[in-house]
Amino acid sequence: MPERDHLAASRRGFLGLAAGGLALAAGSGAARAARVDTSARILILGAGAAGVAMASRLTARLRGATITLLDPRPEHWYQPGFTLIAAGLKPATYAVSSTAQWIPRGATLVPEAAAEIDPETNTVTTESGTKLGYDFLIVATGLVLDWAAIEGFSLDLVGPEHGIGAHYAGPSYAARTWAALDAFTSKGGQALVGRPATEMKCAGAPLKFAFLTEDTAARKGTRGSVAVTYAAQSTALFGVPIVSEKVRMLFAERGIGVVYEHVLKAIDPGARTATYATPEGDKVLDWDFINVIPPMRAPAAVRNSPLPWADKWTDQGWVEADQATLRHPRYPNVFAVGDVAGVPKGKTAASVKWQVPVIEDHLVAEIAGRGEGTERYDGYTSCPLITRVGRAMLVEFDYRNNLVPSFPGIIAPLEELWISWLMKEVALHATYNAMLRGRA
Amino acid sequence: MKQLTFGTLIAVFEEMFGRALFWALVAAAAVITLAYLYVLIRDRAVSWRKFLLAQLSMPVGAVAAVVFVMWITESRLSDIGGPIDAIVLLGIAAVGAVGLAILVYTVQSLVRRPGAG
Ligand SMILES: Cc1cc2nc3c(=O)[nH]c(=O)nc-3n(C[C@H](O)[C@H](O)[C@H](O)COP(=O)(O)OP(=O)(O)OC[C@H]3O[C@@H](n4cnc5c(N)ncnc54)[C@H](O)[C@@H]3O)c2cc1C
Questions:
Q1: In contact, A191 and A156? CB cutoff 8 Å
Q2: CB pairs under 8 A between A and B
Q3: Could you give the CA distance from residue A109 to residue A59 in angstroms, rounded to a whole number?
Q4: Mutation to test the B interface, candidates A85, A395, A418, A421, most B Cβ within 10 Å
Q5: pLDDT tens string for chain A (440 positions)?
Q6: B6 close contact with A: CB closer than 8 A
Q7: Among A101, A251, A333, A383, which residue is least crowded by beta carbons within 10 Å?
Q8: CATH class of A3-145+297-380+430-436
Q9: Which of A416, A426, A429 is the closest to B73 by Cβ?
């Protein structure tokens, strides 16, 4: 039967093509090394983006290791999704999954917070008083949002009733932030958006929020009655000068006002005023809608341990770490990864993706008796800077403030592109999930 | 992005359309392709009359594909910002055009008796 033969031949051809594609894809990844036998006890504090990704990579590389994760939160939060929720594009559930579902086989989750870390005796005490010994400690607790530092603010105030947003606080608060933004942009008035003076996760997110506030009003046709002011904490809009300049130009083009060196310290929800610390003393601005992003610090258990820098960020408590290897200089069996790591830049999920393979390399090399690993983290940080619904700039940079585009010549870093929007809106969540599984 | 693997790509597409819709689309594309191959082999020649109608359907397929992707990604045509955007958009249109042409050709061949066209 010639038809059958033809079909079979073409199917074989198709399978061959698919297999070729797979081989190509596999070849582009790092060659998977053989698993290393060990009885090491590895303790990971935090099962967020960094903790889970770390556990997935280590369970794949090590055989016989005891890998334990500590995290009290039953929900896993996909935080880059908070921006889309706060723009009314996704429901709160978009960012929520369960922590337990991501724990890889070969690792154990203890649903408790670390209360005390003692790197001298290699023990961590949990909130219930259980003591856990370790050979290697990976600190991946993320950071805490210091809401109490904003006088007059409380999370119950978030929503359309008071015209207050706080999309950093979590998925349901991001949804309430959208409710507040939606009501505000229908009515009109003055919006205030800003950022804290501490280090922060995703420093582009406050800028995105300013753009989205303007865009929401423009789409509704109420732009004429809406004023948006961005309160920058310093004299720049972004830590990377070339990006800061680009944002300054875009803000001007879009009619978004800027006040520099304004750090939010208090709000009065009744009078709808906000007080900012400035070099010339306190200044008070009026608002009809305000989005609050508070100072950020390491969790108390980390801050109160011997792990933070003694002479840097002393009010914030980030874990002392070598910039290139993320290893603790004073306690070499301790690594820091993700938002809690005391390195300049790098507080994004994209940085986590680049940090995790570095720690994996150094840890596995040491366990295998090969000495130091060779991988190095160069400060890679990425932030798809949404400038309106449908467009974004893919901003990627390193420790030296150099732009390091992933797709040079194809996706221009400082250009507002639809493809960059697609990356944030559709590709980022999938890439994030793949990272959690150790596949990206 | 540090490494872009085939698995990541599949995951990206599952995310884009939702897992069920994505695999339904893949299955639909596979079925149509197989049916197309089947009628080609059965008829042992390309029918130029059917091909003409298939060609006429191409602009419709192109527009439909673009509208669909824009709807799924909350975007508008005015969001196209640079050359790469235009290339991606043209790619989507091309896939839609060829896809619908194959579909139209196959449907015609399946509903009409072989040799009749
Ligand atoms: C609004 C917003 C937008 C963002 N947009 C982007 C973006 O576009 N691109 C991007 O790459 N990144 C973005 N990010 C940043 C990104 O989400 C974080 O950088 C990333 O989640 C960091 O991972 P992590 O594991 O260090 O912290 P997390 O993911 O926060 O996880 C920390 C975990 O540690 C747990 N924990 C805390 N204290 C303890 C303790 N004492 N003991 C045990 N466990 C503890 C917590 O419960 C939590 O589960 C955004 C963040 C926000 C808030």
A1: no
A2: 107
A3: 13
A4: A418
A5: 333 333 333 333 333 333 333 333 333 334 456 799 999 999 999 999 999 999 999 999 999 999 999 999 999 999 999 999 999 999 999 999 999 999 999 999 999 999 999 999 999 999 999 999 999 999 999 999 999 999 999 999 999 999 999 999 999 999 999 999 999 999 999 999 999 999 999 999 999 999 999 999 999 999 999 999 999 999 999 999 999 999 999 999 999 999 999 999 999 999 999 999 999 999 999 999 999 999 999 999 999 999 999 999 999 999 999 999 999 999 999 999 999 999 999 999 999 999 999 999 999 999 999 989 999 999 999 989 999 999 999 999 999 999 999 888 889 889 999 999 998 887 888 889 889 988 77
A6: yes
A7: A101
A8: alpha beta
A9: A426
The label of the residue with tokens 């991946």 reads A140
With a 6 A CB cut-off, is A352 part of the ligand 1 pocket?
A: yes
Q: Is A425 on the interface with B (CB under 8 A)?
A: yes
Question: What residues of B are in contact with residue A440 (Cβ under 8 Å)?
Answer: 1-3, 5, 8
Ligand 1 neighbourhood includes A57 CB (under 6 angstroms): no
> Which among A417, A263, A240 has a CA at the least distance from the CA of A346?
A240
CB proximity B82 to A under 8 Å: yes
Query: Which CATH number describes the domain made up of A147-295?
Result: 3.50.50.60
Reported as a single tens digit per residue, the pLDDT across A162-185 is 999 999 999 999 999 999 999 999
Q: What is the 3-state secondary structure (H, E, C) of A118-161?
A: ECCCCEEEECCCCEEECCEEEECCCCEECHHHCECCCHHHCECC
Check if A3-145+297-380+430-436 and A147-295 are the same fold: yes
Residue with tokens 């990377």: A240
Measuring CA to CA, which residue among A275, A296, A240, A254 is closest to residue A386? A254
Write the CA distances from A117 to A87, A134, A277, A302, A304, integer angstroms. 39, 11, 35, 7, 8
Assembly ipTM: 0.81
Q: Is the CB of A38 under 6 A from ligand 1?
A: no
Task: Supply φ then ψ for residue B98, to 5 degrees.
Answer: -65, -40
Q: Which of B10, B14, B15, B90 to mutate to test the interface with A (most CBs of A within 10 A)?
A: B15
Name the pTM for this structure: 0.90
The CA-CA-CA angle for residues B98, B103, B106, to 5°, reads: 125
